[in-house]
Amino acid sequence: MVRGYDSYMDTLPRIIQGGMGAGVSGWRLANAVSRAGGLGIVAGTALDVILARHLQIGDPGGHLRRALNAFPVPGVAERILDRYFVEGGKPEHAPFKSKPMLSASPSRALTELTVTANFVEVFLAREGHANPVGINYLEKIQLPTLPSLFGAMLAGVGYVCMGAGIPAAIPGILDRLAAKLPVELRLDVAGAEHGETFVTRFDPSELMQGKAPELVRPRFLAIVSTDIVASILLRKSSGTIDGFVIEGPTAGGHNAPPRGRAGTSPEGEPVYGPRDLPDLATIRSFGLPFWLAGSRAEPEHLEEALAQGAAGIQVGTAFAFAEESGIDPLWKAKIIAMSRADEARVFTDPVASPTGFPFKVLRVGGTLSDASVSEARERRCDLGYLRHAYRRGDGSIGWRCPAEDALDFVAKGGDAADTVGRKCVCNGLLANIGLGQTRPDGEREPPIFTSGDDVANVARLLAPGRSSYRAADVVEYLLAPSNAAHVAEQ
Questions:
Q1: How does DSSP classify residue 226?
Q2: pLDDT tens-digit readout, 333-342
Q3: What angle do CA 457, 463, 464 make, to 5 degrees?
Q4: To the nearest whole number, what is the mean pLDDT of the chain?
Q5: Which residues pair with 136 in a beta bridge?
Q6: What's phi and psi for 427, nearest 5 deg?
Q7: Structure confidence at residue 253 as a pLDDT band (50, 70, 90)
């Protein structure tokens, strides 16, 4: 149990904003949610390329440069600006300049970009208010984790959330980073021999040149699907877990695979059953705060969660389509209109994501959810966030992605069957936020939107005569009845 549990509970948010997609939960959204009284969460995925590409379109408003000016190590911001910033923005149809691919032993330039990108996002999310903000990472994306965590901590992040795996090593890593000590993270490498270990390392002193400020260890919330996974984490964790987000299969993004052999529905979606439901009595017995997630964006669901002993709820989809989210405004308007017309549908695709986790895909024409668009796209892997590590014959690490060219994947020892139905989630998610790459033939990378089942109902958040809504509207909608009940109790 957390020390000083009662006082700790008093500080907890009732609403956590989900960390959706690369750049969807950007700093603007997290800032707006935290200002409104929830816990704003920045999505920590691919922040290095997001920073690099935003600088190449000219950093409209100058916000990124303002945050870069606050980075505490001299020379780092200048090097990043020299490499990526384009005054006035690159020509619209010109391709983005690439940045280095992720590596177990990254270059100094990539480490600086990763640390700084996470710093920038959290700095801007915290700007102008005194409420905490958090950051969300995927356990499956291991290579940038250590410098990413440090960059977020440099900016004063209050919470770190992580799911899509069993992040048992992260609490101890946070402890060491807070003490500015070197850290390492064991990598999952297919084909590793017995007793063989592969790691990636990060030493704060090498980057900071002995000038790191005092750091506060953020609270760590593990995102899990069941009490069983939560129990495993509590037994194996390298340090303190401060709470859990219990995420059901109707939540957007990556879902945990169903337990057992339930098979798929006639439409081809994974079938979830009673074994996939968390035992809340067991969760409560851990003595840690928890939040319930997955189609919870209704006032009555918040009240129900509180009555079940939860600290509150995590809400993703309702925030994903708010004005402040990173989704391209034209696509956002189209999807809200689909919701209003009762045409917004999500397919839980068991094979789309290279991770192997089921991935919720919003069916929208002109995106990778459209078979004709997906089949017309040339398969390539040039971002590499979801690549898989494998052991080469000489003992070194190789990288392959089930969404890359099938012949290339097989040449690296992969199974051709694993490439069937895979989609380039990395490039697709960047296209969602207006940062899709332009190819040599002039074609733009198509988007792939992920969303929870609640997308069918987001139009309910529109005020009469409005075609959009703000993050504060969502918080107000969810908290109003709860606040009224709280006042009545007093």
A1: S
A2: 999 999 999 9
A3: 110
A4: 92
A5: 43, 161
A6: -65, -35
A7: confident
Q: What span, in angstroms and rounded, lies between the C-alpha atoms of 203 and 207?
A: 7
Q: Name the residue type at position 49.
A: V
- pTM here is 0.94
Residue 384 in tokens: 């590499």
The ranges assigned to domains in the chain are 5-328+463-489
Q: Are 56 and 89 in contact (CB under 8 A)?
A: yes
How much is the average pLDDT of 350-375? 92
C-alpha gyration radius of the chain? 22
| DSSP 3-state of 362 | strand
Cβ contact 332:353 at 8 Å: no
Pull the structure tokens for residue 215: 């750091």
In 3D space, the residue among 191, 110, 190 whose CA is nearest the CA of residue 151 turns out to be: 110
pLDDT tens, residue by residue, 29-70 = 999 999 999 999 999 999 999 999 999 999 999 999 999 999
- Angstrom distance (rounded) from CA 340 to CA 346: 15
- What pLDDT band is residue 481 in, cutting at 50, 70 and 90? low
Nearest partner of 251 among 278, 225, 222, judged by Cα: 225
Strands 133-138 and 159-163: parallel
Mean pLDDT of all residues in 109-119: 98
Beta strands in 109-248 (DSSP E): 133-138, 159-163, 183-186, 189-190, 199-202, 219-224, 243-247
pLDDT for the residue 6:
54
Classified by CATH at the fold level, domain 5-328+463-489 comes out as TIM Barrel (3.20.20)
Structural contact between residues 75 and 83, judged by C-beta atoms closer than 8 angstroms:
no
Q: What distance in Å separates the CA atoms of residue 385 and residue 23, rounded to the nearest whole number?
A: 14
Q: Which residues pair with 93 in a beta bridge?
A: none
Rounded to 5 degrees, what are φ and ψ at 315? -125, 125
Task: Check residue 442 and give its pLDDT.
Answer: 87
Res 488 pLDDT > 50: no
Instruction: Give residue 89's region: left, alpha or beta (phi > 0; psi -120 to 50).
Output: left
Residue 489's pLDDT is: 41
Nearest to 387 by CA among 101, 107, 114, 191: 101
